[in-house]
Amino acid sequence: MKVLMKKEWFKDWFESNDYLDVYNHRDDKEAQTLIELIIKTINPSKEKIFLDAACGFGRHALVLSSLGYKVIGFDLSRNLLSMAKRNSLAKNLTLDLLAGDFRSITFKKKIDIVLNLFTSFGYFETDDDNFHFVKGAYHFIKEGGYYVFDYINLSYLKKNIVKETERIIEGKIIREFRNIENDRVNKKILIQERNTIAEYSESVKLYSPEFLINSFNYTGFELIKQYGDYLGNNFEEQESPRLILFFQK
Ligand SMILES: C[S@@+](CC[C@H](N)C(=O)[O-])C[C@H]1O[C@@H](n2cnc3c(N)ncnc32)[C@H](O)[C@@H]1O
Description:
This protein has helices at about 10-15, 20, 30-40, 60-65, 80-90, 125-140, 155-160, 210-220, and strands at about 50-55, 70-75, 95-100, 110-115, 140-150, 165-170, 170-180, 185-195, 195-205, 220-225, 240-249. The longest helix is centred in the first third of the chain and has 15 residues, at about 30-40. The protein is α/β, with parallel strands linked by helices. The protein has a domain at about 25-155 and about 210-249: Rossmann fold. It is globular and about 55 Å long. The strands form 2 sheets. The chain has a 7-stranded mixed beta sheet with strand order 3-2-1-4-5-11-10, with helices on both faces. A 4-stranded antiparallel beta sheet has the order 6-7-8-9. Helix 3 (about 30-40) crosses helix 4 (about 60-65). The termini are far apart. The protein is built from 8 helices and 11 strands. The structure holds S-adenosylmethionine (SAM). S-adenosylmethionine binds next to helix 1.
């Protein structure tokens, strides 16, 4: 099946409840593992302020809050933000949640650590839009603060892409079609529930590790650590499922 890219696909997709079914394996346990890696790597004291950029339903932010850190989270999806709010109330934890778009949000308050986790990057068509937030963050991150970036490893994806899958979750048939074209990984998602079929798309610009590191360096950040998965294994370009980069201002 041809996978066509839909402009601003991220608006409908992340606002839908279907997103939560398709990514139900991206859960609190995975978030806990990644937060443990982040804490082990930069060892922040408890007064540090985290900003979870594109916090979704708050899975990473809530782990940090449970550890006693002050966490601000923003996201474009009102649906995911209200879920984050509900989750924080249910766990008796505090999150400072805001609606915002990567292409325009900025902060007057100085932040110690910005988190940009689970491929919340590369959604826009131009590099200027994709890097807009990174450039802005350099100005509101404190001197010595960090930007943690968790993204697709391009070489691994190219070798391992599965063109078509079908699963059943919560009685819904979920069919996904993937391809790589024009430096983007595109996905069409069809969700069939009884007689209705909902269709969504995803499209992420694929940047090489070199391009990303150079772009962050150009902004002023210095790379201090890289990993290839959430367990903290070394990054190996051909083998690692993730590209996890720690930058410092
Ligand atoms: C793959 S999810 C990751 C969410 C969260 N970081 C996690 O790991 O669960 C991508 C997130 O980016 C958000 N998002 C998409 N486009 C955005 C935009 N233009 N500005 C801010 N957030 C956006 C989505 O709503 C979604 O929560």
